Amino acid sequence: MTRSGIERREFLKRVGAGSAGLAAFPVLAEPSWAHDDNDDRGRRFYFQAVSGQAATLAGGESILMSGCGSFTPSSVRGGGEFVHFDGTKIPSSNFINTGSWRATRFLSFVEVGTWGVGVSGILEMEIKLLPCDGPVIRGATLKIVCNIGPAGLETEPLQQEGFTLTVPGLAPFSPFTPAVGLTFFSRPCAPKEEN
Question: Which DSSP symbol is given to 66?
Fold first, then answer.
């Protein structure tokens, strides 16, 4: 199979974002900085996806990111991990950079609508990247898009589900079409007490 012929399922398996990784999504919510149960205005975000500088994975550099956190109309808390790699060299044990990231500043949130506890919309924040080997990278922006297809809740004009990462000095990493990964925004609910 040629590099450009890698199917989505095979790619997800190779980069560790396969069904087992995506099934473990709720585990991402465990860190204490990820959410604040005392804020009933808050929304939560979860994502695990791959974006690239080229239109296809095999076309250039890509980044696999995961993350979770919470946000209000004026603040954001959260973070996750990343692996920056050369998509033209898959499979490969080599990578360009790897580490974690943390949200530093809320920029905006545009809500499309809600469906149960699910929320469709676009979240933008400023983040810092914390490479395992290298200096902290400040001033990056992360845009996460969540469409909820079963509810007909999609961004207008339609934006691809996933994330766009803009790092100073690099071309932006944008979602592939079709998307590779998952995003989900949620809102708190007040469960009824048992009698």
Answer: E
